[in-house]
Amino acid sequence: MFATHPWAQNEQGLEPSGSGSSIRGTWYWNRYPGLMCDTESYIYVALLEETGYMSRNKYASGSEIQADGTGWQRRRQMNFNAFTCNEEPLPSLNKVDDGWTRMPSFSVLIGGPQSLQPDYIERIKTVDMVRHAKIREGAHDIVQSAVSADLLTPWYPGWCKRPCFHDDYLSAFNLPNVELVEIRHQGISHCTAKGLVVNHVEYELDAIILSTG
Questions:
Q1: Residue 43 and residue 80 in contact, taking contact as beta carbons nearer than 8 Å
Q2: How many C-beta neighbours within 10 Å does residue 178 have?
Q3: Where are the domains of the chain?
Q4: What is the model's pTM?
Q5: When you count CB atoms within 10 A of the terminal residue's CB, does the N or C end of the chain come out lower?
């Protein structure tokens, strides 16, 4: 949508084609309860200046995304890019100041000027280890079961998977009707009429939700 905007401004002929009939991309069509965009809406939502629209929240909710909605947005985007790419020197002010911009190790994945330095990955590993240590400590502080807390903590560098900055879900593992089942090594073997079989143990379930991301 954003790429075709200049064409539309010049009154060039366009014929959009797609299964969706509205803008906002993937987030528009996700309809699960509690949906929120995980990137700051002031830099993620396109054409704010051109449309005169201002997102109500820093991280737009599903209801807002599904509704219709020179300079400042681009400057904010460039500031965001500087921190996520871990540029040197960094701007004096972190305008977005969220999990992405406070994670310099993410620059290993998306690249940046420093990525060309031979020892960059080794240097950033040290920074990433400090960040991961705080995440592990946080999980053990909230989750009462040490075994579950260990399974919920990352064992890989921060740039290996999409980071998750929202940890309110951790307290759910303390509920009596919630059990965390480890499937890292053997996985789910098969389904039965009652549920799923993991590590030769059948877990009876009322419903199976396939959350594939």
A1: yes
A2: 10
A3: 182-213
A4: 0.59
A5: C
